[in-house]
Amino acid sequence: MLNTTPIARVQDAVEKVSPYLAEYKKAYLERAERGEFNTLGSSQSMLSRHPTYPVLMRSEAALQQEYLKKLKSKFIETAAKAQFLRFIRNDDGQQWGAEENEQLEAQNQKEKAELRETKIRLQQSFGRAIELARELEAERPLLVKEAKEANRLAKEVSEMRLELMRLGRDKPVEERLTISEAENILDNQIVQLQDLDTKLHSIQESAVEYKSAAKKVEKEIEALRPTVVQVKAQLQADAAATRAEGREEAEAMSRMCDWYTSAEDMYKDLFGLEALDTPSENEMVLQYSKPVPYTVSLVFNPTTKRLADAKLIGLPGVDITEPRDLALDANDGRQLLAYLRLRAALAANGHA
Q1: Collapsing DSSP states into helix, strand and coil, what is residue 351?
Q2: What whole-number distance in Å separates Cα of residue 189 and Cα of residue 196?
Q3: Mind listing the pLDDT tens digit for each residue in 302-334?
Q4: Number of DSSP helices (H) and strands (E) in the chain, helices first
Q5: For the segment 184-197, what is each residue's pLDDT rounded down to a tens digit?
Q6: What is d(CA 63, CA 46) in angstroms, rounded to the nearest whole number?
């Protein structure tokens, strides 16, 4: 905020000045306009061009005093010449008595005293004016800064008004929304957002339940996998050993193989596994066809038999960096496969 202390001091100083200051100021300005102070020529007198600038008053007063001294010397010289002429012509001129001289002397002393008091007041006024001028000059940068800020704000207000006028011109009255219509639209959007939030929460709960069920089924299948592999191997060995023993045993063996094949097909259909391939001794490629097509490649360390890496082909936008790292640390490929099946299900439902 602008510091008004110097301005307040100026006001206090003006109030303390004698009542006839306003009249003197008016008369002073009128004389300045008429050029009465231009005693030194218009090119030298700055006060005649700037009569209200207080800093110039001291230098101008010094010049006026010097001019008055010269005028006084000229007057004394003229008076001496006139007295010399009267002396030559024996003309005593106007005679003054002692009483009149005393009256003139008293009046002269009185006027000198008033002149001294006026000079003192004038010097004090000069000092106060110069002091206040310096304080106001010190305040000038702040005033300039605030003026620039005011101009900037005025410009922004003008630009905003023009923008409002442009919007009012481009948007007819019949196309504008009333406050009640805008509030109704806002209320409807809030209701829609609440419904969407409820649906999202339901989908998240379903995904959690599906994930838990998938993990449970996967654990059961994984628990049965060694038995299935063992039974398959045993059946294949028994089938090879007893192939020649008779048709009956061959048919039983065929039924067992059919059961295993159907169980494997059921597993593939349950999880959407379309193909299982082993390009190398330490790599397994699982190709899924549903709920959306994607392929997973699991790479194992041939020495430690631990899961070493995993790659995903398909499911755009799915980042498996974090679940892959968790699976590698836990040496649990089933966890990664379950996560990918969950993401595939979400992608199929349009929530990927």
Answers
A1: coil
A2: 10
A3: 888 888 888 888 888 888 888 888 888 888 888
A4: 8, 4
A5: 888 999 999 999 99
A6: 11
Burial state string for 48-83 with b = 16 or more CB within 10 A and e = fewer than 16: beebeebebbeebeebbeeeeeeeeeeeeeeeeeee
The first and second tokens of residue 25, run together, are 């100021």
Length of the chain in terms of residues written: 352
Query: Are 200 and 192 a contacting pair, CB within 8 Å?
Result: no
Distance CA 321, CA 315 (A): 14
Which of 97-101, 199-203, 221-225, 301-305 bottoms out in mean pLDDT, i.e. has the lowest? 97-101
Residues 253-309: tens digit of each pLDDT: 777 777 777 776 776 676 777 777 888 888 888 888 777 888 888 888 888 888 888
Three-state DSSP class for residue 279: strand
Record the tokens describing residue 346, joined without a space. 């979400």
Give the distance, in angstroms, between the CA of residue 51 and the centroid of all CA atoms in the same chain.
49
The Cα 64–Cα 37 span in angstroms is 9
8 A C-beta contact, residue 352 and residue 315: yes
CB neighbour list of residue 270: distance below 8 Å, 6 or more residues apart:
217
Tokens 């038999």, residue? 305
